[in-house]
Amino acid sequence: MLAVVGLLGAGLGGALAGESALRLQSPAFGDGGAIPTRFACDGADVSPPLRWSGTPAGTRSLALIVDDPDAPGRVWVHWVVFNLPATVGGLAGEVSGALPGAAREGRNSWGDAAYGGPCPPSGSHRYRFTLYALDTALDLEAPDKAALLAAMRGHVLDRVRLVGRYAK
Length: 168
What we know:
Elements: E1 23-25, E2 50-53, E3 61-68, E4 76-85, E5 90-91, E6 104-105, E7 124-134, H1 145-152, E8 156-167
Antiparallel strand pairs: 1-2, 2-5, 3-4, 3-7, 4-6, 7-8
């Protein structure tokens, strides 16, 4: 399944809804579909495979943020990845800690520079996989989501979101 959503907000720029050429999908789950247990904290807790296409001209790197807006009290960040090579068309599953090229991981809400799978305390939660095409590479040292978003401001060429759901 393909997710095609241009996002606005946080002053990051990028495409408006319906104008995005960037596409994001996972062979493991469809947009709005259930994330398999293998990719969650009560499974193998490994990152799911992701594929993307339609990277705009001028893209020098990509960034990925995976978060849970349904977490109690605040948005919970599960994965922060930046400096993905513009020439890469996706990530195989189970790649946390072994990313391609100069790609690096930032800190999630557990304080780890790694993937942390869906782990809702109760009920069903949404997990947003947001991919950003950037006109630059970023010189950062294990940023959290807020620091990455601040560094990306003014450099986002396009972005797209894939949403999965998970319940224990």
